[in-house]
Specification:
eight-stranded mixed sheet; binds magnesium ion; binds adenosine-5'-diphosphate; single chain; alpha+beta; 23 strands; 18 helices
Length: 616
């Protein structure tokens, strides 16, 4: 029989390797920045266009490449960084696989310019889809500039798979942070579509963190310092009171390389035990230095995972170092046997100053109540919530002023969805009764048996459809604020908000200014209460970070989801009979009552037949 095994042509092998190395524009950013660092650059400039889809360029002042090396750098497994397998255990560089440039050149248009210090002229190479288009001598400063254009130009499926610019930019900023945080002794600048996003002068760790995350970060940092035989720990944790509801800033570096480790993350979380309310995450920037022989970073192609020889010791050391710092800075409660503990103020009271009384929204208020003036709530709450909930319906005013009343009277009007469940029987034939279970579920009778709905998810669905309707029908309806709202965000968040600006305006936000670390808002969508804006924007940013699985990312949709999530009645809240009924009825007036905005089941049914079977 004829031989059937063939070696893949190089360009095909390269494309396959590229799939591992280059998932998205941010992977290119990571590889190029790391190469610049390995080349001992002290100034690195990152330039991107269209979130890296059109251009990623890195310019460094490092050692450059010779004519031969410049050409060789695009060959697979061509690296100057290791020579033997043993070198893998002595790694002091970021790269070592010699795959990145070959992979990138296989799926993009790449231009390289490079010159070594003592050469008069440098080399320029243009390579497209692994094919060298030209190689010339050029006049260029010392160092290397690599431009990667039209990523995935020859793999349309991959190109189409890329997410919106907001999401891709977010990934790029993440990579940039990771590299810039690890190397405060290198000056970095970052330009997106011609405007500068970051300009980071050299400094120490603290200065770098503050330069990236904003001046307010400085007061949040508690230093962590520990030197033992096996490892050195430096860096900061953030004071517990600044912990975030979303994952927050969690950075681990091992020998200047960003790594992810659930195990070590756990060590830190456990050091915060008792200091954080549940649902909050600590922020930290920790730099570990260990002997390269005791770690293996070769286990993952993108190299963010690492294997330690002695994880348990590391865990214990890290945990105790963080605990120690929190205690030293008077953040953890102190044990003092001489003192009457009753006289101690809780640790987080130390810094609290008396505030002016503020009006709060009564979260327990329920919009489905038909009689608003039942007189049971305090006046402050009543007026506040009334305006809020009123505003919820403003967008739907086209239906007439007593829309709310009308809404409350929608009894199974949306026939398609309700008929199947409730049957066509007139209401006279059966009486709908509801019952609330554990302040969480509403049980309701239906013709065929019963239905149990999850109050939180159901209300999210109702609000979500309302919000979407408001935003799409009465596009951009906004309420002018008496005083502009000024919110502080980190530079990164600001960049994301800038990306989403148009969509947010579409939804009714009016921005007077977005700059440095401040967002100034003049108007809000009619249905957003002013005090929830910050939360809503934070959720939105974190949803962009997490890319919200199953969504095709529309800012309007995300916004509606975020708002529904923040404003829906939560589990644990008791509802009156008429409120329960209203919830059930409103849910079935929705277009998609079966699932929450995040595609989770909102209700289940059980027929009398099924019940009968259980009683056999
Ligand atoms: P690796 O970094 O794993 O060695 P790469 O494909 O990223 O593999 O790079 C191949 C080689 O090209 C490197 O080993 C290095 O010698 C050279 N190189 C890449 N980028 C630069 C740069 N910015 N400055 C100097 N040399 C570089
Ligand atoms: Mg490399």
């Amino acid at each position: 029989m004829a031989d059937i095994i063939q070696l893949l042509p190089d360009h095909v092998a390269n494309q396959i390797a590229a799939g591992e190395v280059v998932q998205r524009p941010s992977s290119v950013v990571k590889e190029l920045l790391e190469n610049a660092i390995d080349a001992e650059a002290t100034i690195i400039k990152l330039i991107i266009k269209d979130a890296g889809k059109t251009l990623v360029q890195v310019i460094d002042n490092g050692k450059g490449m010779s004519t031969t090396d410049a050409r060789l750098s695009f060959e697979r497994h061509a690296t100057s960084k290791i020579r033997t397998a043993d070198d893998l255990f002595q790694l002091h560089t970021k790269g070592f696989r010699g795959e990145a440039l070959a992979s990138i050149a296989a799926i993009a248009h790449v231009e390289l310019k490079t010159k070594q210090e003592h050469d008069d002229v440098g080399n320029a190479i243009i390579i497209e889809g692994s094919t060298i288009v030209s190689q010339d001598v050029v006049v260029t400063p010392k160092g290397t500039s690599i431009s990667v254009k039209n990523l995935f130009f020859n793999i349309p499926a991959r190109r189409n798979f890329l997410k919106s610019n907001a999401v891709e930019l977010r990934h790029i900023i993440d990579e940039f942070h990771r590299v810039a945080l690890a190397h405060p002794n290198i000056s970095f600048s970052f330009y997106n579509n011609g405007s500068d996003v970051f300009n980071l002068p050299t400094g120490n760790y603290r200065q770098r963190i503050v330069a990236i995350f904003g001046s307010k970060t400085n007061e949040k940092l508690v230093p962590v310092e520990e030197t033992t035989e096996v490892l050195k720990i430096a860096g900061f944790v953030c004071k517990p009171e600044f912990s975030k509801k979303t994952r927050g800033e969690q950075y681990f570096f091992v020998n200047d390389r960003f790594i992810k480790s659930g195990y070590l993350n756990h060590a830190i979380s456990s050091a915060f035990d008792g200091l954080l309310k549940s649902g909050l995450y600590p922020s930290y920037f920790l730099y570990l230095t260990v002997n390269p022989q005791t770690i293996d970073i070769n286990i993952h192609p993108t190299k963010t995972e690492i294997k330690f020889d002695d994880e348990h010791t590391l865990y214990a050391l890290l945990r105790s170092a963080v605990k120690h710092s929190l205690g030293q800075f008077n953040i953890a409660p102190v044990l003092d046997f001489e003192r009457d503990p009753n006289l101690d103020t809780p640790y987080d009271y130390n810094k609290i100053e008396a505030n002016n009384p503020v009006i709060e929204v009564d979260r327990s208020f329920n919009p489905f109540k038909e009689t608003y003036n039942s007189g049971k709530q305090t006046t402050a709450f009543k007026t506040q919530t009334l305006t809020n909930w009123d505003s919820l319906y403003v967008g739907l005013e086209s239906k007439g002023n007593d829309f709310r009343k009308e809404f409350s009277e929608v009894h199974f009007e949306s026939e398609e969805s309700t008929e199947s469940i409730f049957g066509t029987t007139s209401q006279a034939e059966y009486v709908q009764t509801t019952y609330q279970l554990h302040n969480k579920y509403i049980v309701s009778t239906i013709k065929s048996g019963m239905l149990i709905l999850d109050q939180y998810r159901a209300h999210q669905r109702i609000l979500y459809e309302d919000f979407l309707k408001c935003m799409t029908i009465k596009e951009g309806m906004s309420q002018q604020l008496l005083f502009p709202l000024e919110l502080h965000f980190s530079t990164t968040d600001i960049e994301i908000i800038k990306q989403l600006k148009q969509d947010l305006e579409h939804a009714g936000f009016v921005f007077s200014n977005i700059h440095n670390e401040i967002v100034e808002i003049m108007g809000l969508p009619v249905n957003i209460p002013e005090q929830d804006v910050r939360n809503i924007l934070e959720y939105l940013i974190s949803d962009v970070e997490n890319e919200v699985p199953n969504s095709n990312f529309s800012a309007t949709d995300l916004l509606a989801k975020s708002m529904a999530k923040s404003l829906a009645i939560k589990r644990g809240q008791s509802l009156k009979k008429d409120e329960q009924e209203h919830l059930v009825n409103s849910l079935f007036a929705c277009k998609e009552p079966n699932v929450s905005p995040n595609n989770k089941v909102t209700f289940i049914t059980m027929s009398v037949d099924e019940l009968d079977k259980k009683f056999i």
